[in-house]
Design goal:
mainly alpha, two-stranded antiparallel sheet, 2 strands
Length: 105
């Protein structure tokens, strides 16, 4: 069960949150480009650029908050990261191959 929860957290932290950050940054810079491109042009388009930048920043804040909440929940529930889970190893397993009357340990 913990492995399933850890897999879900790993999916969120390793794929969804970085995608959200990338989308929000793109959206923010799209607003910057809209604002700069208008220059001395239409005031309406400049205002749309400002709104786009603000919503991009809001999105970055939300993505960062979700990421922090996921880390907080993981730490409070004591769910270890995927790298810190002890996995069984085969260090104590010995194999031998037999060829006719000869054996190789």
């Amino acid at each position: 069960m913990i492995a399933l929860i850890d897999s879900a957290f790993a999916l969120i932290n390793n794929i969804l949150i970085p995608m959200a950050f990338a989308f929000c940054l793109f959206y923010f810079f799209w607003g910057v480009a809209k604002y700069i491109r208008t220059g001395a042009g239409s005031e309406k388009t400049a205002e749309e650029g400002k709104k786009t930048m603000i919503w991009g920043l809001v999105g970055i804040f939300v993505a960062f908050s979700v990421w922090g909440i996921i880390i907080f929940i993981r730490n409070e529930l004591g769910i270890p990261g995927i790298d810190s889970i002890e996995r069984p190893t085969n260090e104590n397993v010995t194999t031998s191959v037999h060829f006719g009357n000869q054996s190789n340990p």
